[in-house]
Specification:
The chain is an alpha+beta fold. Helices cover 41% and strands 16% of the residues. The protein has one domain. Strand 1 and strand 2 form a beta hairpin.
């Protein structure tokens, strides 16, 4: 099978997930938002995918759907990163 350079690039980029290094204060704020949600809604079955959080104000909201659309000043903290910090 012969790949063109575009196919190789697409295949290569689909396999690589580069971890994003976030400011620890952003992760702490995302963890607090998630913890508050878990305490207020203990009976909720649907787990969020993560938290979209503003880099400057540290205000955020839980994301429950794929492919979050972020504002330029926002970043996405995946639930896996939040939970790894908790445990």
């Amino acid at each position: 099978m012969v790949y063109t350079s575009q196919q190789r690039t697409e295949t290569w980029t689909q396999r690589i997930e580069i971890p994003v290094l976030l400011d620890p204060s952003i992760i702490r704020a995302a963890r607090q938002i998630y913890r508050t949600y878990s305490e207020v809604h203990p009976d909720r079955v649907q787990r969020p995918l993560g938290v979209a959080i503003d880099r400057y104000t540290c205000r955020g909201k839980l994301i429950f759907y794929n492919k979050p659309i972020l504002l330029p000043q926002e970043c996405f903290v995946p639930l896996s990163q939040i939970e790894s910090e908790i445990y």
